[in-house]
Amino acid sequence: MMDCLFCKIAAGEIPSKKIYEDDKVLAFYDIDPKAPVHFLVIPKQHIPSADYITAENSAIVGHVFEVIAKIAAELKLEKGYRVVNNCGEHGGQTVEHLHFHILAGRSLAWPPG
Ligand code: AMP
Ligand code: ZN
């Protein structure tokens, strides 16, 4: 995916503040944090959004959540955190490569506006 920002970050073509990386996923800090701790976990494989999760590729979602739990323990987020996936226009998705936001470090309002 030549024009995908997160594919370029996954390939190391655009720098990011990496937290965790393996052959399947990358976790890095959001460039415009919305909470004291705000990072993203992305599959390295290009999946445009949650709409494109299928029986063939859904295992990556389980792996993403394993990685989130691992990072939460390492960052000592014992007070909790929120995992967010924005999908499509009304979901507020701006980057068309599947990603999960992890927000932490303060009490977060619910529901979102
Ligand atoms: P969304 O609006 O759910 O598609 O989230 C996209 C997120 O990517 C936003 O929170 C942006 O701040 C973040 N973002 C955009 N460009 C970069 C970048 N180069 N490095 C890290 N995060 C980024
Ligand atoms: Zn991509």
TrEMBL record:
Gene3D superfamilies in the record:
HIT-like
Show the coiled coil region(s): none
Q: Where do the HIT domain residues begin and end?
A: 5-113
Per its UniProt entry, which superkingdom is the organism in?
A: Bacteria
Catalytic residues in the record = H99 (tele-amp-histidine intermediate)
* Alphabetized PROSITE patterns for the sequence: HIT_1, HIT_2
Motif Histidine triad motif at which residues?
A: 97-101
Q: What does the record give under GO molecular function?
A: catalytic activity
InterPro entries listed in its UniProt record: Histidine_triad_CS, Histidine_triad_HIT, HIT-like, HIT-like_sf
Q: Which Pfam families match?
A: HIT
Query: PANTHER family in the record, alphabetically?
Result: HISTIDINE TRIAD HIT PROTEIN (PTHR23089)
Question: What name does the UniProt record give this protein?
Answer: Histidine triad (HIT) family protein
- Organism this protein belongs to: Hydrogenoanaerobacterium saccharovorans
